[in-house]
Design goal:
CATH superfamily of the largest domain: Iron/manganese superoxide dismutase, C-terminal domain
Distance between the termini: 49 Å
Number of domains: 2
CATH topology of the largest domain: minor pseudopilin epsh fold
Shape: globular
Helix content: 40-55%
Radius of gyration: 19 Å
């Protein structure tokens, strides 16, 4: 009885946080907590203007991103992924249904995207990241052209990525829908350090069908400090 009451009290304690703070999974009599957090946007909706407008940011974050998060939490609650980190799920992505693939990807990819943009962004990287970009792509300008090309040439919805492979080398890739380089179902796997969303909901209100113009404007808000931090972490 004491064990039963302890489990019930634990469940009650966490239940009020489940929607936007964490997911609690019950495995037999063991309570497993996994922190699937819907994090606040790290800046105001209008902070990236004029490059990304307030209305787009509000709809993108509070409707699209939130829907991916909620749908993932709902779909994942009764799967073997409950209690796993997103990275662990991605590493075994081929074992999960499309509802998990699409929504776990959408949840992670958008949170990643917000983090690599900043109202104080723009310019170019410095230090080791700058050296690695020049070594890999020839120059920063050549890198930008290749990255934009990956986004423009993505047919339909998806993402363009800058990632670090298992050898510590940079590479550019593009994924469809809500896939990302961490998933074991994509052609080129690695640790992403920069991403841009090329779904139409990311740019259509301001740029209409001009995806290339949106991608050119994206460089004005890139948070190179965060990208460099991710690069250092991926190459340690």
């Amino acid at each position: 009885m004491k064990k039963f009451l302890t489990v019930m009290l634990t469940l009650l304690m966490y239940s009020s946080y489940a929607q936007d703070a964490q997911v609690v999974a019950k495995v037999g009599v063991k309570v497993v907590e996994q922190a699937y957090v819907f994090a606040p946007l790290p800046y105001a909706y209008d902070a990236l203007e004029p490059h990304i407008d307030k209305q787009t940011m509000e709809i993108h974050y509070d409707r699209h991103h939130r829907a991916y998060y909620n749908n993932f939490v709902k779909a994942n609650f009764d799967t073997k992924g409950n209690g796993m980190t997103l990275e662990q799920i991605f590493d075994n992505m081929d074992a999960f249904p499309d509802v998990i693939r699409n929504n776990a990807g959408g949840y992670y990819n958008h949170e990643f995207f917000w983090s690599v943009m900043s109202p104080n962004g723009g310019g170019k990287p410095v230090g080791r990241l700058d050296e690695a970009i020049t070594e890999t792509f020839g120059s920063f300008e050549d890198f930008k052209k290749l990255f934009e090309s990956a986004g423009v040439s993505r047919f339909g919805s998806g993402w363009a990525w800058l990632s670090v492979n298992s050898d510590g080398k940079l590479f550019i890739s593009s994924t469809a829908n809500q896939d990302n380089p961490l998933m074991n179902v994509v052609e080129e796997r690695g640790k992403p350090i920069l991403a841009v969303d090329v779904w139409e909901h990311a740019y259509y209100l301001k740029y209409q069908n001009k995806r290339g113009t949106y991608l050119s404007a994206f460089w004005n808000v890139v948070n190179w400090e965060e990208v460099a931090r991710r690069y250092m972490e991926a190459t340690q």
